[in-house]
Amino acid sequence: MAWEAASGAWLHLGQDDAPPRCLAFCGEVPALWLVLLGGAREVPAVTPATAGYQVPVIGLRVSLEQALANWQRLGEWLQAHPQFYRVPALGLCLAAVEAWLRTAAEDQGLAWLQGDLDAVSGPFDRNAPSRSGFWRWNADDRLQALADGSADLHRLTGVMDFEELGEWHRGFGFGTLRHPWFEALEQLDGFAALEHPFPALPPHEPVEHDPWWEHSYRAHAQGDRWGLVNQADGTWHEAPRWDAIQPDSHSFIRVWVRQGALWGVLQIEPVVELLLAPQFDAVVDSACDDHMVASQGGLLGLMHIPSGQWRLPPRFHELRRETGELLRAREGAHYGFLDLDGQWRVPPRYQDTRPFGGTLAFDAPGLAWVMAEGRWGLLDEQGQERLACRYDQVEWRQEHDHRGWRVGRDGRQGWVGIDGREAVPCEWDEVDCYEPYQHPLQAEGIYRVTRNGLHGLSPALGDWRVAPRYMEIEPLGLGQGAAPLPADPWRSAPEPDGSLAAWIAEVGGEPGAPRLLIRVRDQQGCAVIDERERQWVPPSPGLVETLGNGNQRWLKRTDEQDRQQLWSLVRGEPALPGWHAGVEVLELPDQPLLLTFERLDGPEGFSLGLRLWRETGEPALEGCFSALAGQSFWLPRLDEDTREQLLEAWSRGQDVPAEAWEAGQAQPCFVRPGQPRQSAQAAWQARYQAGDLQAALALSRLAASPTEAYAWARRACALDGGTGTPSAGAWLQLTRLALQGAGGDDALPAARDWVARARASEPELDEGFEASALEARLWLEPAAGPVDGARALAAADYLVAVTGTTQALHHEGRYLLGRCHREGQGTAVGLDAAREHWRIAAADGHGAATRALVELLAEQASAEDDQAAAERLWLEARQHAWNYLEHPGDAGDAAVITALHGFCGELELLSEPLDWAAAEYHLLQAAEGGHLPAMGLLAVEVYRRRGSPLRDGRQARAWALRHAEASGALPAEAPAAWRWLLGWLLWLRG
């Protein structure tokens, strides 16, 4: 079928009166180039048939002028992005493509670009002649996102790490720094002189293999003599007295030494000992016990090392150690196998042989493939042919070898198992096994057989077969008719160890139930059958998947809208009505719990909620939960840690913490199936009264005010009653609240000691990172004691080094490093370094870093004499402020948001042309947050200033009064008459 061939992507440059030229193919046509094809029209494909790839039907064509306009729009958007400065070379990439498009448009006249993408429809949309409609929508959608400002960086460009230039090269389709488009253009008339800013890469220098890299010693020359040097300390291990030394690639304790033209064997560990003096033409193998293969007089023999006598005199042209007891030898044109006494265990009659398998993962122990009369068979170590030489083809793919080999005979395929028996006769168009890294089930002993393009199953053992009648087929797992899997807490796969075919051949499950569940797809859709081809899930569009890792009782169905449904195999119908965002099953000892997920829309955006049901369809817990046992649901599944915690707690009849979703808000509580919800406050209070210090920590996090949170944090640290060992998290919570001012002036001097106690309490990895962040802040805080910039710098530097760039603590470390450089703490004052750290943190939504960066840029802009340079600094500051206000990190810092609104409002008043609406909006947001300068600017500049379209005396007086109250000039309890009079005076004075 056409869609079974590889999908390709071609990009062509052409003119109506000239044949097109292919500029890029497959990997050189990344998603980023789809921006060029925005607004394209569908035309017949121009790509000729390519062997192994789908033949295109329809292409997307756009003029070079339109492509250039699209690219310029992309460039403008990228250059305005706050992270653009991180990749200085990115501008070169954009400019290079723009220059090429412009030059091509000018020199080639009416030229066009055409993309022939994903040529034919796939197996799920075969009613459409081509997928070009999908790609046209994709290109137009990207262009529209650029136009309306809703573009997402990663989705648009396919670049995951903005700072990694290599990703941009891949995103632009640069296989190397020399762009393939430019190379193609050099062959076109008028483009020979086109230059681009990417230098040619230096030629690749091959790296010479170092035979000593795994050894403790290395050959070293002194003059014209060689010895061995200890690689650890450089001392001589074997004095330089040989003409040459070579390692035995299979041994770390023996090397070969040469004197003149003859070779010998030297043992180097545990002590240096000359085992055999140089006497051989060559040493072939000295790594195996007391024997070695060596050459003398041009012939090979087997030498007994301890006695120095030939076990097998040199008389063979080829000799190789096969096993501990067998050697492969050649006589004439044929190979045979000798024992150590020189007796032929297998006379030389084979044209070729493969090595005997050992104990490695991909080996067949004790078996070797041999060829006679052009056909292959299997031989065991006793010299018996396990399979006669009858196969004209054997596939040596290692990923199959642990299950055997695909074999062929007379144009048909079969399978030989690892036990040396023919598992599938050679009567099929194709036979394949199920590798664990390609399929959800490691179905050992079960093979997919194909005839006329349709698939079936054939087991190595058992009385069942599935006829080849399906477009797709794949084993899913054990059914209730198979013997139950043994209890194994480490089991992570839904199949037994060893042969699945042998397991399901045993009778031990429920009579009449399926032993093996098999997913199939035909013209009607995806269905599930068993080994007897009985249908257990009817066909439908979408997909059917397993749940759990034991004998299956439920399956998960997914429809074309990515909704999910839980299917009961016992009842043969949906276990729960309707379709959901996700489904799961939690197997408790007494009964299973069925889980469904649904979408929740809250103040912080989209998340998922969880409902729990009994097998009868009744709720196991009333209500919907946005979190359970510490897991918030962003994906429709339980984490393994959460699953284990729920199983352990509920099996013992214990409640677990949760967050119930009510009226768009999360309400903390404790839950257990079959029991009413318990208030989180009451539950934690009871646990604290029982002596649980961690309960006090939980109450601190739930507290309504910082003062209450601080009091509970002290109890969690056993500072105000209670006994026990406080956790690292409790000390960190107490320190965090002290830095927020919750403990008053007396708290901060003790905070440094609290962090030290947290470090002594064996913190978790993330708690150790947070301790470093708190240390850095405390060493910069005068109220906590003497400032120590060097220790603050070291703590922040460590934090940045050990955390990933996507972690919030990494950006906290960047912010603190910026403070050290800005204030000259532990290092010289470096505004450039501070700005760089704050830029990185601000780009990922760190509020304090954004505010510090904006203030620094504003300060530098005010001091800048060059008007153009100052304008760039003001614009960058405004861009960072806008970016944070649009996407504040961690739900936003209210103080930072207020300050940035005040900055943006004041900057709008200084800009030309003046945007009064924007200035009023930002200043109102800041003033409502208590920003004193914003109140004054509203009273004087926005609502009183002549020429302001928003001039309003009442508003001016109101904000003048609020400014006076906030600044302390007017007491809040002043009489109304005085307030009215002062308001007029303030308004008149401005």
From TrEMBL:
Domain of life: Bacteria
InterPro entries per the UniProt record, alphabetical: Sel1-like, TPR-like_helical_dom_sf, WG_beta_rep
A Pfam family of this chain: WG_beta_rep
Record's protein name: WG containing repeat-containing protein
Source organism: Metapseudomonas otitidis
